User: What shape does this take?
Amino acid sequence: MAIDLEPSWMLVLQDEFDKEYMVKLKAFLQNEREAGYKIYPKGGDIFNAFKKTPFDQLKVVILGQDPYHGPGQAHGLSFSVQRGINPPPSLKNIFKELVKDIPGFTIPSHGDLSSWAEQGVLLLNATLTVRDSSPGSHQKKGWEEFTDKVIKTISEQKEGIVFILWGAFAQAKAELIDQTKHFIIKSPHPSPFSADRGFFGSKPFSKTNEILLKTGKREINWLIF
Assistant: This one.
């Protein structure tokens, strides 16, 4: 597993990579590959969120759970898929909400959310790898300890970050966030199983931009080209 983070992230996270849990995680991933399992995303994309969204430019966090577990989908950004791959149901529902929430938004021809990441939106999954066709297969192997540390570090060292937490799993991470310094937007998950129970109509994207403007930051352009 190549540790490839943007320099401002390395400054705040470098001590994590020598800890025992990370050593065990690296060994687990190596064993998975030696056993012949396909692992997503590919090695160079595992830390993509940290390469595309520098720590010193961070404004928003959208927290997911697992990477997508189908071929060619995951590329290290939560909810995002690589170009040429059909957007999964949750992402399609995100686009539906964007159409209603953001004037002028049209559903794009792809599901690559890199343009959000490059504007300061950290698209963070709690678990950064998964075995092919096996959702949840890399949970509780060490990734959650790492990504919890990421959330705590953001909470402690930044101010005025907007955390978008969809669903019970993401909302449980609110306890890691200092809510006297940061903003949390909650709703049900955009999954087809829960989107009709409050995700649709929750307007997380316009609410985020309202907060950013009030705190003197530039809005996110949510349009995807």
